[in-house]
Amino acid sequence: MFYELTLKTEFRGFPSITADVEKIVAQSGVKDGYCIVSVPHTTAALAITSFWDKRGLYDMMDEIDRNFPTRVSYLHQDSPFDASGHVKSATMGSSKMLIIQNGKMVLGSSQGLVLVEFDGPRERKVYIQLVEA
Description:
It contains three helices and seven strands, in the order βαββααββββ.
């Protein structure tokens, strides 16, 4: 079963998409299987992390920026944020596979699925493929 979400992001935003994906899983009727989530964009990524305290997400973005700074010396560059966003997205990954058990995604008690926007604001497509086991 294939699903599509569309969301508007903010510059360097990190919206949780956990509730959206949980709703899709619940409505699908899949009891056991896999949920594959993909963000096919070159300046966005996905993270499974705690999203309850926004300070942790700001810390994550700060650490990513410290390791992959936005700079003007990239060879490929529409803008410095676009160029560094390509590197950040490739490093973090644009898809995640989650286990579905008893009709729910298997996540830790404080974990969620976050779309990480390195450029933006943009309208992003998120694709979800459910596979019943």
